[in-house]
Design brief:
Elements: H1 2-17, H2 26-37, E1 40-47, E2 53-60, E3 66-73, E4 78-81, E5 83-84, E6 90-96, E7 100-107, E8 117-124, E9 127-128, H3 135-139, E10 150-151, H4 157-213
Antiparallel strand pairs: 1-2, 2-6, 3-4, 3-7, 5-6, 7-8, 9-10
């Protein structure tokens, strides 16, 4: 792995120092950049042995003449290269929630275009919503911090409790309105029942009175 890193550093430094005799052919560079534009970046979450939420970043449509790296300090060999998995998909794993990952795509060829920077992609990994399956979220599923399993910002216990209390106060009148409407419906139904009973009894009495007159 270290030999691969040294090799990558050498050809990247050559690109930085611009020592190529003829330069990169424009048509070849255009082709490589088109390959880089067709890359698709996706991420999936998993739980590690310690119970922490981690992320795996994958790149789809990778070709053999391009390479993807996460460059932190190229001169100190501080970078990661996307590895090819058994399914042919290139990936890096074990990233933390909320982490910002910048990926650089370079040419990996045997011509003058080698190490040319083709594109970069910044991925902002989300935060796991620890309250998503909580009893509060089951009781208030429409609360803003209960709708998604992942969020762009970290939600602390203090923030969740504070916003939930505000939400409860906001919906309190609406809950009261529902109760009042239900009471009105019950009163109307009860009134209809009473009217129906009175009508029935009245009809029976009138009918009996007529029979007695005969």
């Amino acid at each position: 792995m270290k030999k691969l890193k040294i090799f990558l550093v050498v050809f990247i430094l050559l690109a930085f120092l611009n020592v190529k005799a003829d330069g990169c052919d424009s048509n070849e560079l255009k082709r490589l950049k088109e390959e880089a534009r067709n890359l698709e970046f996706v991420y999936d979450n998993f739980t590690d042995a310690g119970g922490n939420v981690r992320f795996k970043i994958s790149i789809l449509n990778m070709k053999d003449d391009i390479v993807a790296l996460v460059e932190r300090d190229i001169y100190r060999l501080d970078f990661d290269t996307f590895k090819k998995g058994e399914d042919g998909v290139y990936y890096l794993t074990n990233y933390a929630e909320g982490e910002v990952v910048t990926i650089t795509v370079r040419a990996y060829t045997r011509n003058e275009c080698s190490a040319e920077r083709l594109r970069s992609k910044t991925i902002r990994l989300p935060y796991y919503n620890q309250f998503y399956d909580s009893k509060e979220c089951k009781e208030y599923p429409e609360f803003k911090y209960c709708k998604q399993e992942f969020n762009n910002t970290e939600i602390t216990q203090e923030k969740f409790d504070k916003e939930l209390e505000k939400y409860k106060k906001e919906i309190a009148p609406k809950e009261g309105e529902k109760i009042n409407i239900l009471k009105i419906i019950l009163i109307v139904l009860a009134s209809l029942v009473v009217i129906g009973v009175i009508t029935f009894v009245t009809i029976k009495l009138v009918k009996k009175h007529r029979e007695n007159d005969i």
